[in-house]
Amino acid sequence: MPLHTLNNSDDWLITNDSVMGGLSKGHTFVEDNTVTFSGFLSTENSGGFSSVFKKLSGLSESIKSVTIAIKGDGKPYQLRVRTQVMGYELAYKINFDTSIDTVTNHTFKLSDFEASFRGRIISNAPLLKASTITHVGFLLSAKQPSHFSLNIYSIEFI
């Protein structure tokens, strides 16, 4: 099941480290059905992350993996999904590397995602199930200030 649409930048919600006093700035724009997530990571005021998410609904319980087609900037990113577990919103995440100016495809099993809550690993969380996923997105964090750019061509749940 491909993501319904990538072509509306209003569907993508940015969360920067400003929620905790940081000064990073991320934004999105869409051109030719490609989402570009870019900006500047600042480490001032204990900052250093930016993320972008899109709301999802109706994923089938039978889905076992997700495939992304992206072009990056050589930095490591996280693919993240949000879900509700026992009344809490958990993030399930998996790391991936990008190559500068090269489109790459990555496929991840949902069972390989790691649960976290506000940056802390939740080792006893249930395995991720597609039917509970409410959002999909990407996160970049850094210990050094830097510009970033990630092009998202497709996200497919299979």
Note down, in words, how this protein is organized.
A hairpin with a 2-residue loop joins strand 9 and strand 10. The strands form 2 sheets. A 7-stranded antiparallel β-sheet has the order 1-4-11-6-7-9-10, with no helix packed on it. Strands 2-3-12-5-8 form a 5-stranded antiparallel β-sheet, with no helix packed on it. The protein has strands at residues 12-16, 25-31, 34-41, 49-55, 65-71, 77-85, 88-96, 103-109, 114-117, 120-121, 133-141, 146-157. The mean pLDDT is 91. The chain is globular and about 40 Å long. The chain is 0% helix and 54% strand. By secondary structure, the chain is mainly β. The protein has no helices and 12 strands. The chain has one domain (9-157): Galactose-binding lectin (Jelly Rolls, Sandwich).
Secondary structure elements and pairings:
Layout: E1 12-16, E2 25-31, E3 34-41, E4 49-55, E5 65-71, E6 77-85, E7 88-96, E8 103-109, E9 114-117, E10 120-121, E11 133-141, E12 146-157
Antiparallel strand pairs: 1-4, 2-3, 3-12, 4-11, 5-8, 5-12, 6-7, 6-11, 7-9, 9-10
Quick description:
It is built from no helices and twelve strands. With 158 residues, it is mainly beta.
